[in-house]
Specification:
- By secondary structure, this protein is of the alpha/beta class.
- The protein has three domains: about 220 residues, Rossmann fold (3-Layer(aba) Sandwich); about 100 residues, 3-Layer(aba) Sandwich (Rossmann fold); about 80 residues, ACT domain (Alpha-Beta Plaits, 2-Layer Sandwich), CATH 3.30.70.
- Strand 7, helix 10 and strand 8 form a beta-alpha-beta unit.
- Helix 5 packs parallel to helix 6, helix 8 packs across helix 10 and helix 10 packs parallel to helix 12.
- The protein contains 17 helices and 14 strands.
- The chain has a six-stranded mixed β-sheet. The protein has a four-stranded parallel β-sheet with strand order 5-4-3-6, with helices on both faces. Strands 12-13-11-14 form a four-stranded antiparallel β-sheet.
- InterPro entries: ACT-like_dom_sf, ACT_dom, ACT_ThrD-II-like, Ser/Thr_Dehydratase, Thr_deHydtase_catblc, TrpB-like_PALP, TrpB-like_PALP_sf.
- This is threonine ammonia-lyase.
- It holds the Pfam family ACT_4.
- Keywords: Lyase, Pyridoxal phosphate.
Length: about 400
């Protein structure tokens, strides 16, 4: 049975999708995040879609879309394009419904996401360097083979399925005042905003993009989806070049606010969520928390609910991002110190560092730097520190002890 096309998603459509998804998706938990309450000036509660089946919210929209295809469409199979989370959602939904799936992914897609997508039974083809390039290939495959293209965000059924997140938030956090949502193509934000506009119009919705890959601000200013510049970002899950027509209409009509966050802000948020929230999320999944951290205290009304959209992070990337987050939080300090090339100089430096309360992680000792004289040695030292004030104090104490220090 085909699902009739409608001009706009409604609250009742989303409620119907929730009934369809009952027993298929996980009703993900919410978790009070007291570590952010003082910073935000209001209670913060995390919506943990990183604990969803296939590791992100994407299964909600993918299953809704695939289940409503005709028998003939199901028999011809589906094709999708994704950096990873939509890929896994489509692959899992297709496996559950007995539909053959081909998924195009960028050549630099996360290895764990590739393995998981194949593990759900989909055929993976890698092409291009972005989701937009993979989507071009997926459209060509759909035209050639007759497969149905399952767009990651630009379809009414996908928006409808993603909107079920908002129904759960309203039941789990009845006093919610603001929902902060990572924003790529816009399917999740559109679904959540649609539900809240009808069921709880007092609740504010904020979409969050990576500032180096943010197409929505310019599109909203232009009044139509326009291509944005895709710069380098760790948040591959929300790095989308052009907003979708369906979600853009929702965000524009409902006046959804869109903010951007920096790479440093996302890495700090990811670290905080891991260290204090005990949740592992990918950089894009932490974008909402990053926006709350960057906001002025008290500027977001009511109980704040950031949605942790996904937990499918490559362990190697996680190591790099955590280190970046430690630096951003003043928990990790790298220094270059020029010392005399004589016995005892290095020991004196290390003693001074210990006296300043910093823990030495790594020391590199070199005599070959072109800036040095024959009587000097350059020491590159990496330290564990206790925050920005401690970093400043360490540098000041070393300089007071007569060391030539540059951070």
């Amino acid at each position: 049975m085909t699902h009739p096309e409608i001009d706009r998603v409604t609250l009742e459509d989303v409620r119907a999708a929730a009934r369809l998804l009952d027993g298929v998706v996980t009703r993900t938990p919410v978790q009070p995040f007291r570590a952010m309450t003082e910073v935000a000036g209001a209670p913060v509660v995390l919506k943990c879609e990183n604990l969803q089946r296939a590791g992100s919210f994407k299964i909600r929209g993918a299953y809704t879309r695939l289940s409503r295809m005709s028998d003939d469409e199901k028999a011809r199979g589906v094709v999708a394009a994704s950096a990873g989370n939509h890929a896994q959602g489509v692959a899992l939904a297709a496996q559950m419904l007995g539909i053959d799936a081909v998924v195009y992914m960028p050549v630099d897609a996360s290895v764990p996401k590739l393995i998981a997508t194949r593990g759900y039974g989909a055929e993976v083809r890698q092409i291009g360097t972005s989701v937009d390039e993979a989507l071009v290939a997926a459209r060509a495959e759909a035209a050639r083979s007759g497969r149905t293209l399952i767009h990651p965000f630009d379809h009414l059924d996908v928006v409808t399925g993603q909107g079920t997140v908002a129904l759960e938030i309203l039941e789990q956090v009845p006093d919610v005042g603001t929902v902060v949502v990572p924003l790529g193509g816009g399917g999740l934000v559109a679904g959540i905003a649609t539900v809240l506009a009808e069921a709880a119009p007092h609740v504010r919705v904020v979409g969050v993009q990576a500032e180096t890959a943010a197409a929505y601000p310019a599109s909203l200013a232009a009044g139509r989806p326009v291509p944005g510049t895709l710069g380098t970002t760790m948040a591959d899950g929300i790095a989308i070049g052009t907003p979708g027509d369906v979600p853009f209409e929702v965000l524009a009509r409902l006046g959804v606010e869109v903010r951007t966050v920096s790479e440093e802000e996302m890495s700090r948020a990811l670290l905080l969520v891991a260290e204090r929230g005990k949740q592992i999320v990918e950089p894009s999944g932490a974008a909402g928390v990053a926006a709350v951290l960057a906001a002025a205290p008290g500027s977001l009304p009511g109980v704040i609910v950031p949605v942790l959209t996904g937990g499918n992070v490559d362990p190697l990337l996680l190591v790099r991002v955590v280190q970046h987050g430690l630096v951003a939080a003043g928990r990790y300090l790298q220094l270059r110190v020029c010392i005399d090339d004589r016995p005892g100089s290095l020991a004196a430096l290390l003693d001074a560092i210990a006296a300043a309360g910093a823990n030495i992680v790594q020391v590199e000792h070199t005599r070959t730097d072109t800036s040095l004289t024959v009587s000097q040695v350059l020491v590159n030292v990496q330290l564990e520190t206790k925050g920005h004030e401690h970093c400043t104090a360490v540098v000041e104490k070393l300089r007071a002890a007569g060391f030539d220090v540059s951070a």
